[in-house]
Amino acid sequence: MDCPTLKWGIIGTGQISTAFVTDLVLPRDDKNANHVVQAIGSSSKEKADEFVKKVAPESTATTYGAYDSVYADPAVDIVYIGTPHAFHKEACLAAIAQGKHVLCEKPFTLNRREAVEVFDAARKKGVFVMEALWTRFMPLCQELQKAVHEDKVIGEVNRVFCDFGLHMDLETLPRSSRLKNVALGGGSLLDIGIYSLTWGLLLLDNGIGETAATPQVFSAQSISQKIDIASSMILHYPQTGRQGILTSSMQIKTDPVFARIEGSKGVITIEGPATSVPKKFTVIPRGEDAEKKEYDFSRPGYGFYWEADAVAHDIAAKKTESSRMPWAETLRVMELMDGVRERGGARFPQDDSI
């Protein structure tokens, strides 16, 4: 279908769901899918009603004060899960059990074991499931990968540096905050470090999932109140000698230039308001007389619609996995983060059964 239609059920009415639905209803000249906000589920019907009034006032979405009602709604094609990390597995399994397709926010689950459980359920049910790592679907990300791996604009890649830091003022947050509550998957790694890790994986190697090269990983975490307030990862690819230095912090905000790719013929910098939201990259060839070239990308709204459009086309094509974010890639990233946490000390109660 040239412009398939998806009817969305939204689970959770917090900040991330607000941004996602705002993009679903945003008028766009470049859209190649139709998105209908069909149902909203929240902890109360009043919250769901307020969400629709604020975010999608022109929609005719049905509002529910329970998530199960969204999963059971026969008009819903796909469920978007925007709840805190610790509730992702439960929500995914409940939606899949009702035969719904699923787009679940990152991190997909708290650990690899939980992700395997979800994918096994999806495989048995024959539904589409994807982790919503929205940055991977942005045109800038895809153009940058082409420039690095296919066009080789800076020659052979040697190193990648990437940081994602936010000043989260943890001392003023209540213990119940998802950012600092260990039972909710709090800490920097799963919340923002996953983006630094993603950029490293995408730029150091052109494989994905089962076709990706396997790096050696060295890491360390700074632990406070049982969560990691900072994580550092070094990826080393023995096959090529390439290295990635990838970091996250809850103590200080990253500068706009958040990543640097060093190659045999030059350097590329990536910048934007956050590591998850790149705005442009700059190619700086080696040599005093070489002219740098900027690649700027416009982004109306937030930029969640690119992944939503891709999901609509995959489902229309009867796929159960995305080629850009396949299940094997989610499992690979989850396994790497499991290792970082095991070495660094950031453990969740849900890890006890691993």
UniProtKB/TrEMBL annotation:
The keyword Oxidoreductase applies. Residues 6-131 form the Gfo/Idh/MocA-like oxidoreductase N-terminal domain. It comes from the Eukaryota. GO terms for molecular function: D-xylose 1-dehydrogenase (NADP+) activity; nucleotide binding. Its EC number is 1.1.1.179. This is D-xylose 1-dehydrogenase (NADP(+), D-xylono-1,5-lactone-forming). Belongs to the Gfo/Idh/MocA family. It is an enzyme of class 1 (oxidoreductase). Gene3D superfamilies: Dihydrodipicolinate Reductase, domain 2 (3.30.360.10), NAD(P)-binding Rossmann-like Domain (3.40.50.720). It holds the Pfam family GFO_IDH_MocA_C3. Residues 146-268 form the GFO/IDH/MocA-like oxidoreductase domain.
